[in-house]
Amino acid sequence: MDPVQIRSLSLEALAYLGDAVWELHVRTRVLLPPRRLQWLHGDTVACVRASAQAKLATCLSPHLTVEEADWLRRGRNAGGTVPRRLDPATYRLATAFEALLGYLFLADRDRLGVILHLCDEFQHHHGPDTPSPEA
Predict the structure, then answer these.
(1) Where is the signal peptide?
(2) Cys-Cys link to 69, which of 33, 64, 98, 105 (CB 3.0-4.6 A)?
(3) Active-site residue numbers?
(4) Residues 99, 90, 50, 65: what is their CA dihedral angle, to the nearest 10 degrees?
(5) pTM (2 decimals)?
């Protein structure tokens, strides 16, 4: 997809795509070592919940290019209905994280791989729902 087409997409559409990218990445990552399905599911849910995504967005910020930081900012400011059970700031950061991944999936798969690796490293060292070092 060319840059003009990507920019024509709504931030919600990019977040929709980014949600799928992140979930598939996490599901692939948790497959090894082999475990029961319930453990795979539990590990996946811990990593893809909004609070974990919001922490990743915060931790990624210093590693982003100017353009990526702009996509993250735009994603955070996107409209949308916040689920009642979530803090609005957490939801918006999680949406920003997903929008960034959606953008990178369409625009730069190599860079997406770098960002996903950074996310994996953070979650490996700190756990999916551990407060970020900056918090």
Answers:
(1) none
(2) 64
(3) 19
(4) 40
(5) 0.90
- Report the sign of the C-alpha dihedral through residues 4, 20, 68, 77, in that order: positive
Amino acid occupying residue 55: K
What is the per-residue pLDDT across 94-124, written as a single tens digit (0 to 9) for each? 999 999 999 999 999 999 999 999 999 999 8
User: On the CB side of 19, how many CA atoms lie within 13 Å of its CA?
Assistant: 14
For residue 48 the two structure tokens come to 């893809």
In b/e form, how buried is each residue of 63-95, taking b as 16+ CB within 10 angstroms?
A: ebeeebeebbeebbebeeeeeeeeeeebbbbbb
Q: CATH homologous superfamily of domain 3-126?
A: Ribonuclease III domain (1.10.1520.10)
